[in-house]
Write a structure and sequence with these properties.
This protein has about 160 residues and is an alpha+beta fold. It is built from six helices and four strands; from the N terminus they run αββααββααα. It folds into two domains: about 100 residues, Winged helix-like DNA-binding domain superfamily/Winged helix DNA-binding domain (Arc Repressor Mutant, subunit A, Orthogonal Bundle), CATH 1.10.10; about 40 residues, no CATH class. Strands 1-2-4-3 form a four-stranded antiparallel beta sheet.
Amino acid sequence: MSTPAVEPEAAEESDQLPAVFQHCCDVYTAMLEKAKPVALSEEEGGGNMIVYEGFLTQLFKDLRLSVPYFTSVTQELKRMGSIRQLRRGGGQAPSQWELVKAPSEELWRESEPMNKPGKSRMDILEQKVRDLTKQVNDAELPELKAIVAELARKVL
């Protein structure tokens, strides 16, 4: 009994997603498995948000992802609007991240990856301002508006 031949991918090389995209999906899924719903106050709009609290460095080790992926994966998840840092960790203190939406091919392709070759520091900062502006327009949170205004002053 022979196994059927695997058809080659029809997509061109430029259409294929890089490995870091799959790592983003894996990290988000692992975060989601450990996340808990947190009730928002009426001032914050009510409802719930899904929050991961833990040590991302340990999560990366558990997923057997090498240390160099840490920065690129977290940057790309933030760029896609999949996660938002609520509290920075360090030492014995765990970090807190809101899980906003699962990474998808559409979100990945919507804007250019941060680490695309040839991007200048200014290109990256401009993209961050665009991303933050989109978050402010989507969420209309006063604290995010202040962050965007501060970033815009620094960039412009």
